[in-house]
Design goal:
heterodimer, A: alpha+beta, Sufe protein. Chain: A, 3-stranded antiparallel sheet, 3 strands, 48% helix, globular, B: alpha/beta, Aspartate Aminotransferase, domain 1, Aspartate Aminotransferase, domain 2, 4-stranded antiparallel sheet, binds pyridoxal-5'-phosphate
């Protein structure tokens, strides 16, 4: 599946979740699927600082693709992080760099991307892109 | 005895109407749910009287103050000075020229930290604050202490969130030049014994600044009875507009301090060789102030005065108690801040649920709360928690809203835990 196919699949699933609370229940449930970062990487170096909840993100490459593991102390952040990781993990640096991450907006969670929101989602997306850029230039 | 909170819609009448009806912002839906606004410690909603006064100001007397010979300027200047007089009587200041308009609490503290610091702080001196101060009563002192080679010292608190007064007395050596404490904690709700603190400090000839940002809207503040040297608060937390605050200072102190900012209005005469500063209060009001906010703050004070701070305090105490009792019945809730005397805000954490998660879900149920450290990070560190969920009350809140909050909280917790 391409990044966009994954995004579209998520958008479809959220279509059925009309009530806000249902959307969040979905996000919270999905937090369980997040590939959890190894304890030894839960250090400042991999910490993405949101003001209220903390997110750790660790990138690894296998066969030229980047895979992410992560964690958060708040479950909603963890669920949101999981959605992003599910969408972007397992692709080449070039694919990640070029990805247009539109699903967050389309499923009605755009507010979480505002820089004034302190859950770290925006910083996390930036960080993922930075990692991908770094791997990309390493290869080049 | 019937509780006043039970007759809530009619408990207080202002200008012939139940007060809740006079706050348009309270009558809206968010995410399809009726709004329950419990973030009043951050800022209160505004009554029609204030909203209308803002429009009226711009529709009629808008002009610059203290400058024009023309009619509008005189009207605006008069209205501006009317608020100063109202504020003076609101806090029982002996003179209206002891009332300085600022941008807010933060601005007032910065003004005193800076001017007092430059005049009285020398290397080896110290400033004494408390363990529960808002960042705005920490950072300005840190900055000036850094510049003057002085030290910032902290009055500790106990597990309930009460200041340790014996420790306070122990810390009051002759290098302490000023004490700055909050009257009511915005994160713990603790009401501090400021009168006692001031008395003790004065016995040692040390002046005291009181942060009344969380006090003036809930209880009668009398600067003469308290005998504070400086007092600061914000208009926006007392039903008034944003961008205006008050610094009260005793005349003798304000006269001893240098100006904070230079500019128009704060001068008597200017030449390139030097400037003769204006008298109080203008010496501290450089430049065109927030005229609109200063003038319309008067409508907020009228609103409070009309209901009466004693009534407000009695009503809000009932609400506070009711909320505490209801919260005790929610499993897993731990109240942060259990001082004997509390007001305004209730902070809590719940075992197994991050405050941020609860806050996001409550928001989607229409309940506005605040989560995080509430600009009091040292308090969170003290309790070793990442933050709290805080509800805070205003005079327009009702028991029914507390019930909605409790039901929503329970629902959020079943989703999260
Ligand atoms: C106790 C206390 N002090 C100071 C402030 C700062 O007030 P302002 O942001 O209006 O300057 C606040 C408000 O958050 C407060 O609660």
């Amino acid at each position: 599946m391409t990044i966009n196919e994954k995004q579209d699949e998520l958008v479809d699933e959220f279509e059925f979740l009309i009530d806000w609370i249902d959307k969040y229940e979905y996000i919270i449930t999905s937090a369980k699927e997040l590939p959890i970062i190894d304890e030894k990487y839960k250090q400042d170096q991999y910490l993405i600082k949101g003001c209220q909840s903390r997110v750790w993100l660790y990138p690894e490459t296998r066969d030229g693709k980047i895979f992410f593991t992560a964690d958060s102390d708040a479950i909603i952040s963890k669920g949101l992080v999981n959605l992003v990781v599910q969408v972007l993990s397992g692709y080449t640096p070039a694919e990640i760099v070029g990805a247009d991450v539109y699903f967050i907006d389309r499923i009605g969670l755009k507010e979480h991307l505002s820089p004034t929101r302190s859950n770290g989602l925006l910083s996390m997306l930036k960080q993922i892109k930075l990692y991908a850029h770094a791997y990309n230039s390493l290869k080049a | 005895m019937e509780a006043i909170t039970d007759r809530v819609e009619t408990a207080f009448i202002y200008k012939g109407e139940p007060i809740r009806n006079q706050f348009p912002a309270l009558h809206q839906s968010v995410y399809g749910k009726p709004l329950v606004y419990f973030d009043n410690a951050a800022t209160t909603q505004k009554p029609n009287a204030v909203i209308e006064a803002i429009t009226a100001y711009y529709s009629t007397i808008n002009s610059n103050i203290h400058r024009g010979v023309h009619y509008l300027s005189q009207q605006a200047t008069d209205a501006y000075e009317v608020t100063r007089n109202s504020v003076a009587s609101f806090i029982n200041a002996p003179h209206s020229h002891e009332v300085i308009f600022t941008k807010g609490t933060t601005d007032g503290i910065n003004l005193i930290a800076d001017t007092f610091g430059y005049t009285y702080l020398n290397p080896g001196d110290s400033v004494l604050i408390s363990a529960m101060e808002h960042h705005s009563n920490i950072v300005p002192w840190q900055i000036i202490c850094g510049k003057r080679g002085a030290t910032l010292k902290v009055i500790p608190m106990d597990e309930s969130g009460e200041l340790l007064l014996d420790e306070f007395e122990r810390l009051l050596d002759d290098r302490v030049k000023i004490v700055a404490v909050t009257m009511v904690s915005n994160s713990l709700g603790t009401v501090n014994p400021v009168s006692e603190i001031i008395k003790i400090a004065h016995e040692n000839n040390i002046p005291v600044l009181v942060d009344a940002a969380q006090a003036v809207q809930h209880t009668k503040v009398d600067v003469q009875a308290m005998d504070c040297d400086f007092l600061v608060f914000s208009g926006h937390k007392m039903y008034g507009p944003t961008g205006i605050g008050i610094l009260y200072g005793k005349e003798e102190w304000l006269n001893k301090l240098p100006p904070y900012q230079g500019g128009g209005d704060m001068i008597k005469s200017v030449t390139f060789e030097g400037t003769e500063y204006n008298d109080l209060p203008f010496k501290f009001e450089a430049g065109t102030p927030n005229i609109e906010a200063a003038i319309t703050l008067n409508s907020a004070i009228d609103f409070i005065n009309e209901i009466g701070l004693e009534n407000i305090e009695r009503y809000e105490t009932e609400l506070y108690q009711y909320a505490l009792n209801q919260l005790l019945q929610v499993e897993g809730v731990r109240i942060i801040g259990t001082a004997a005397h509390r007001s305004g805000a209730i902070s809590m954490v719940v075992q197994g649920a991050h405050p941020y998660d609860i806050g996001v879900l409550l928001d989607k149920m229409g309940v506005a709360v605040r989560t995080g450290h509430h600009c009091t990070q040292p308090v969170m560190d003290f309790f070793e928690i990442p933050g709290t969920l805080r509800i805070s009350f205003a005079v327009y809140n009702t028991k029914q809203e507390i019930d909605v909050f409790i039901t929503s909280l329970k629902r959020a917790l079943t989703i999260l835990i």
